[in-house]
TrEMBL record:
The keyword Amino-acid biosynthesis does not apply. The keyword Repeat applies. Keywords: Repeat. Residues 16-168 form the Nephrocystin 3-like N-terminal domain. This is Nephrocystin 3-like N-terminal domain-containing protein. It comes from Amanita muscaria (strain Koide BX008). Pfam families: NPHP3_N.
């Protein structure tokens, strides 16, 4: 199953920052956008929301919900979605598979080049650089393959002419952060830190209040069954973890 989407009118600043990075109508942006933050802060939810909102995003991969926690199925999965969203790439992807019988089990570098880069370079109808979202990179269980995956993205982006861009979500404490820091710098990569800001508190307050209000069924006493202080206490107790707030709401649905 895929993650849920953001509650309406929440995480606006981060979503606007992503939207600004996605927009290349005025000037070319970096090839990689890296968002990191602590566990439970809502990274997967943000990933799901922006993926469904922006047409430039043509493929997604969620390590958190994938049965395969390695990189073995990463690029084949992205290529399958790419072929569906941009039909002109389909024949080139199929040609790569026919020329390389073992491509689905090949090295990740070859998969990236033959399933993603070359099909996009062979497509002449695209007027924008498509974007792919990869969430939960820190949940990849193969450290060696993870390092190679990051290196291949950075190397491809260094020339500035990579025909695809990537949004990567990770936790801030994972070694991925150190790898990305040592592998590259802007303009290859842009960074957004997801933390417990005042806006995050306001968003969580809105999320809890809306869901608590929804529990007032027609015919019930119209007065709220909770106090504003109850919401404030829950927001402070969450320490910025939207996972905490969503768990509370889930308990209301299934007491």
């Amino acid at each position: 199953h895929s993650p849920p989407e953001c509650h309406p009118n929440t995480r606006k600043t981060i979503r606007d920052q992503i939207g600004k990075w996605l927009d290349e109508s005025v000037s070319k942006q970096s090839s990689l956008l890296w968002l990191n933050g602590p566990t439970g802060v809502g990274k997967s939810v943000i990933a799901k929301t922006v993926s469904g909102f922006y047409d430039q995003i043509v493929a997604t991969f969620y390590f958190s919900t994938s049965s395969d926690k390695t990189t073995a199925t990463l690029f084949p999965t992205l290529a399958w979605q790419l072929a569906r969203r941009i039909p002109d790439t389909r024949k080139h992807i199929i040609a790569s598979l026919k020329r390389n019988d073992s491509l689905q089990t090949s090295q990740i570098e070859d998969q990236f080049d033959l399933l993603i880069i070359q099909p996009l370079k062979s497509t002449t109808t695209l007027k924008y650089r498509p974007v792919m979202v990869i969430d939960g990179v820190d949940e990849c269980t193969n450290e060696e393959m993870l390092g190679r995956f990051l290196r291949v993205l950075v190397k491809a982006g260094e020339g500035g002419d990579m025909p695809v861009r990537f949004i990567i979500f990770t936790t801030h404490s994972f070694p991925t952060s150190d790898r990305l820091n040592t592998l590259c710098s802007y303009p290859v990569i842009s960074r957004i830190r997801i933390g417990f800001s005042q806006e995050c508190k306001d968003d969580m307050t809105r999320y809890l209040t809306d869901n608590f209000n929804a529990k007032n069924q027609p015919g019930d006493d119209p007065s709220p069954w909770f106090l504003p202080s109850d919401i404030s206490n829950l927001v402070e107790a969450s320490c910025g973890q939207f996972l905490y707030a969503s768990t509370i709401v889930g308990l209301l649905d299934d007491p």
